[in-house]
Structure formats: C-alpha cells, structure tokens
Design goal:
The protein has about 190 residues and is an alpha+beta fold. Helices cover about 40% and strands about 25% of the residues. The chain has three helices and five strands, in the order αβββββαα. Strands 1-2-3-4-5 form a five-stranded antiparallel sheet. Strand 2 and strand 3 form a beta hairpin. The chain starts with a helix and ends with a helix.
C-alpha cells in the first residue's frame, strides 16, 4: 500500500472517530434537554393562555381530540376559559399555520359568544427578521385586542388589522390561523 493511501486511511479514520464522538455527545445531551424543552414549552403555553384571558385566573379546561402523541397524551384542540363559578367566559387556543418562511404557532382567544377577539400572541415562528418577525411586536399584536371577529381581516380587505409593511404573507397567516381556529371551536361548541 502506498504512503498516500495510508494517509487517506488515517484521515478518514480520524473523521469517522470525530463523527462518532460528536454523535455520542449529542445523544447524551439530547435526553435531558428535550425533557426541559417540553417543560419550557408547557410553561410558555400556560403563561400565554393567562395573558389572553386573565379573568380566568388560569382556570382553563382542555378540550382533547382523538389523536395521541408518542407519550400517550391526547392532543388538545382548544381550552375553555372559566370564571371562579365554572362559567365559560371564553376560549383560547394554539394554531399552527404556514407562514412566509415556515410554520407559525399562533395563540388566540375569543369571548364566549365568538363575537370579539381577546388577543393574539405568537408561540413560535420562522419569519424573516425585520419583516415577518414583526408579528411578535406589540404594534402588530395589540391590533387584535378586542376587535370584532367580523373585522378579523387585513385593512386592505376591509378589516381592522393593518398588515406589516413588506410582510403581508406573515400578517395574513396570523389572520388565517385565528379565523380558522375560531370557526372550528364555534362549530365544536354548537
């Protein structure tokens, strides 16, 4: 075997060894961090629900669907917000929607008569920084507080929400997520 073949074998061996060590380290750190990520996401979800309908004092009843995740948990379709007497005062939800750059996870709330939007927040997104990512800013999010569901569309289409300049797709995705989920909940509650 020539000397150049030996050098090639040594280099390939080093690359394989480094790859194996890196994969092993990633595997070791994945298990504890994935559990913590789930805890962090659940904490963020609970906080957002409380912000959307604060009068519920975190009294949210999960309405579950038929699907079951890998851990055996049923999927949550939406939440009924209840007052201290157990009366439904609104509904809150999370909705995944395709955005301009990737999926958005939108949180929303609506009153118990499905007439008024309680608010909107963004749990996660992959929108372009400086453009579509402005959906998380207060200037955009505050437009959804207390608007009639009937006006839940962009102002360019006669609605009450001004789109973000240069990010109409992201703005429309938020509105589509809210509208579709509100309709879904209203139909489920009939």
């Amino acid at each position: 075997m020539s000397e150049s073949n030996n050098e090639t074998i040594v280099i390939v061996g080093k690359i394989v060894l480094i790859s194996v060590v890196a994969a092993l380290l990633l595997g070791i750190t994945y298990v504890p961090t994935s559990a913590q990520l789930k805890i962090n996401e659940e904490t963020a979800r609970t906080a957002i629900l409380g912000e959307l309908i604060p009068e519920a004092n975190n009294n949210f009843e999960a309405v579950e669907g038929d699907l079951v995740d890998d851990d055996g948990n049923r999927d949550v379709l939406y939440y009924r917000a209840k007052d201290s007497s157990g009366n439904i005062i609104g509904y809150a939800f999370f909705k995944q929607q395709a955005g301009a750059q990737g999926p958005l996870v939108i949180a929303g709330g609506v009153d118990d008569s499905f007439a008024t939007v309680r608010g909107m927040d963004v749990l996660s997104h992959e929108e372009t920084p400086g453009l579509g990512a402005k959906i998380i800013e207060d200037d955009f999010r505050s437009q959804f507080n207390g608007i009639p569901v009937a006006s839940l569309s962009l102002s360019s289409s006669g609605g009450a929400v001004d789109s973000i300049t240069g990010a109409t797709i992201s703005s429309q995705a938020v509105i589509d997520a809210l509208n579709s989920k509100i309709i879904e909940i209203e139909e489920a509650e009939e």
